[in-house]
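Why run this: before we spend reagent on co-expression, it is cheaper to look at a predicted model of the complex and decide which construct boundaries make sense. The entries below are exactly what would go into the expression plan.
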Amino acid sequence: MPHTLTINGKARSVDVDDDTPLLWVLRDVLGMTGTKFGCGVALCGACTVHLDGAPTRSCVTPIGSIGNKAITTIEAVGKTRQGRAVQKAWLDVEVVQCGYCQSGQIMSAAALLAAKPKPSDADIDAAMSGNICRCGTYVRIREGIKHAAHGLANDKRGS
Amino acid sequence: MTSNRIIDLVEGDGVDLARRRFLSVSAAMGGGLLIGFTTGPSIGPADAAQSVASPPFTPNAFIRIAGDGQIVLTMPYVEMGQGTYTSIPMLIAEELEVDLKQVRLEHAPPNEKLYGNPLLGGIQATGNSNAVRASWQPLRQAGATARTMLVSAAAKRWNVDPASCRAQSGEVRHVATGRRVKYGELTADAARLPVPESVALKRPEEFKLIGTPAKRLDTPAKVNGTAVYGIDVRPPGVKIATLAQSPVFGGRVKSVNDAAAKAVKGVRQIVRLDDAVAVVADHMGAAKKGLAALVIEWDDGPHAKLDTQKIVDELEKATLNAGPVAQNIGDADKALANAVTKVEATYQVPFLAHAAMEPMNCTVHVRKDGCEVWVGNQVIPRAQATAAETTGLPLDKVVVHNHLIGGGFGRRLEIDGVTRAVQIAMQVEAPVKVVWTREEDIQHDMYRPYFFDRISGGLDAKGMPVAWNHRFAGSSIIARWGPPFFKDGLDADTTEGAIDLVYAFPNLHVEYLRVEPPGIPTAFWRSVGPSHNVFVTESFMDELAVAAKQDPVAYRRALLDKTPRARAVLDLAAQKAGWGTPLPAGVGRGVSLQHAFATYLAQVAEVEVSKDGAVRVRRVVCAVDCGIAVNPDTVKAQIQSAVIFGITAALHGEITLKDGRVQQSNFHDYPVLRMNETPAIEVYIVNSTDPPGGMGEAGTSAIAPAVTNAIYAATGKRIRKLPVANQAART
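The model came back. Tokens follow.
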């Protein structure tokens, strides 16, 4: 069935079953491979995207349920203020190892900072514990989020 | 053969790989980030470098300097998170006197003569935490050789003594006159010079890059979605397949009803193999839906009734008999008989899955005249060989493109996923990307072996150990993976951490019995032999200290006169952890000390045990002497990583079999540590001028006993069988 989606600000049409998870539409139909497959059942967060800004596991989000919500992926999150700050913090703190989960981590972290500009450790636990990293970069992810929050607070020019 | 042409990977109008690749080339040409490794071994920058008019200078198999000054490192090791794509170029750049960013990487082709790992018996593999160790001499030597020849070429041009010239920042300078010439302008001249037999390497005090934290070169592409892992490749016309393999190892497909699967929109083909069925589709969503709609009847084969306990019983029984002697010092039996105090215990560690974040996958295009494979793998020549063998094609007709790996941990030292993908691709008239579901990834892993250990110790009147007797049974990975290195019933991996202990024991006897479990394949798992042995030996050291009524740190320390590096890390970790300072009720500290992967490491874990037995690791302090820390920030990152990986296994990790089937399937029943369970981790690096030790795995093997010793300190409960699970509950 044809569906029209708004992905990173552009209208995209795909013809797949209603129950096809968004993850596979992004990766296999549209070739946007930055969003990763990790578990298929919303246990690991590797597939996290934003729907109208809310962090969402694309592996369990049927394409038919999205309607006209705006989809943002790792490929474009750097165009948002928080996404840009998180990406920079990930480089400054040198968070990344194998990197496979980091698209999802960055999407979750950017959404957290949009909702809570100064997250506490408890806020970070709550927002990030759904994102698994087998390289165990958690210590630096926490540091990276705080670094990004600090950067955003100092960035007076931000929108 | 390895292709040097640019293969058009583009399909669709989403993320455009060709464009991305072009940008990579541009970036590399501009002296910027080398994203070459994001797209495999056969990519643009090499072609671009080679197209420059002036002939390249290739003094050895690792270095090529093009006429435009571009330096290419032919990289024998693959990046799976350990930072090797940064630390190995640092070795070359240091000796070549160039900026790290001037070195671009190209994957080495399968060629064990040139790129075999000297620390893995010449097998071209990335593993055993030894890329830096294996490269330390040869790659610095390669860099120094190139530098020496470039200096000679410049000196000859200027008709001056080479000793009066100096290499610096990618050029040669004549100190007295200030004349300069860039490396790129010297390539033709340097290439005509004989390669010197010996060259002087820089002394540690001269290092500019080595020992200074360097930014990882692979990070930028990993934060914006452009990094290309094996699972991300998209050759034109690629189909996506997922599969069901026999739920019992060794079972077969009896019958398949695929009518419903074929009716799923997007499903193109059902591929039936002897022991697996794959659904080929336009996208993974359709492939998974098709797979769920298949009705497969399996013949479970000989292991249909296999349970974990049967395997454990066999291992336990095996340890009742003597086995090959891995190490003997003095007469442990006699010393034990005469000991004032005797301590005996049995220990067990479970099967473990790897559960790398990137599920198993491999993309293959089989044509009549050749086969192309896209994969992230730690043993590229083996991937090439299995594709050739499976298809019947000659080796030189198989091209393997290696990619970034989304977590290896030993899983990708195996080629079962490549073989499987080739079997499927042979029945598909297009490139096919075979992606395993997480359930398939966990249930058809090759597992860290189960081990059963008997260990006994004897103490003298002062409580000091006079006898150490250790016998264990389990699978030898080496015996299957590298048969020539399994000799007289023993191998260096399975026994590492059980022999050559840091402690001065007057009488020690260690035996290993190889017992291969039926119906479950085994493989290397991060920290390999030590992942098992260090848990046993460091737990038992704690038991001896308790029996001697002595402090665990002081007890160990008294046995370290001959291993000062071990004593230094123990002291440092204890001091930084505040060893001996008071803790609240229900909280304990545990220590562990090891020498493995040529690195000395001590850890102190601070663990809180709740009344219902829930264990939380609050803080980990690690002191490490890994010799020269090539990239100290990566050393810290690897410890942080290894500690988390090890805590996951110690607390939760367990694969079990029932009716021949692996019972765990996804992160709900094979849980891994998450952000809210992550302790504070402090890493202290000992300054050293010793050659580098391995860093990828050492932290993993050391943490389990630190945690379980801390549980003992907190509760008096000794954990002798992993995982901890709910064993710490107070009864």
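The beta strands of chain A are 2-7, 10-15, 48-51, 54-57, 70-72. The two ends of chain A are 38 Å apart (CA to CA). Bring this page to Monday's planning discussion.
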